[in-house]
Amino acid sequence: MDVVGSAEYIVEPTTDVKFQTSLNLHGCPNSLVLLGTGFREKVFAIIGVKVYAAGFYANQSVIDKLSSWKGKTSAEIQGDSSLYDSIFQAPTEKSLQIVLVRDVDGKTFWDALDEAISPRIKAPTSVDESALSTFRSIFQGRPLKKGTLIFLTWVDPSKMLVCISSDGVPSTVDATIESMNVTLALFDVFFGDTPVSPSLKTSVSNGLAVVLN
Fold first, then answer.
1. How does DSSP classify residue 147?
2. In this structure, are residues 149 and 132 in contact, taking their beta carbons and an 8 Å threshold?
3. What is the span of the domain harbouring residue 162?
4. Under the cellular component aspect of Gene Ontology, which terms does the record hold (predicted)?
5. Half-sphere exposure of 116 (CA within 13 A, CB side)
6. Domain tally, the chain
7. Residue 1 maps to a domain
8. According to a count of CB atoms within 10 Å of the terminal CB, is the N or C end of the chain lower?
9. Domain with 32 in it: what CATH number?
10. Under a CB-based contact definition with an 8 Å cutoff, are residues 48 and 96 in contact?
11. pTM, whole model, 2 decimals?
């Protein structure tokens, strides 16, 4: 990973946000391992503004299921959608930790996320619409201050936990999203062919290349 840090944490270099190298989250029976970090930049009036840093974690068993990719380079991993499909389909926990690096209104944050999620769901069902409504309601009218942590945790491919905290790792779940289309769309937002944070996917691919060799 193109980052620096210590045995306990990794620093995302563009935002200087620290991410723990292992994490224990509410709803996950096992600790998760950090695979990479990156940042999200949004353009406002032609100026690129860094909105948040992100780190991707996975249960060690997810990594163990990727043995057929041993020896692959980072570039090969990054360009192989089947590897990321395997990570998503693994029936165990993966989590995206978002750390805001500037104050953001909750509605603005959701609108930007929904702008990426909704086009990826071609024919939303009533289950999808309900899941998106639940997802939206978490952020509406909620000020998100710099330093706020948002955890999006896939406990299995069709179920995702959303946890928000302004004071360290959260101990409660704010919402449960149960829709395969929505959870897959969100994963694709970050690890599909056109990720919203290219730096995160590159870093995770680098991290996987290291642990698989």
1. T
2. no
3. 9-60+90-190
4. chloroplast stroma
5. 22
6. 1
7. no
8. C
9. 3.50.70.10
10. no
11. 0.92
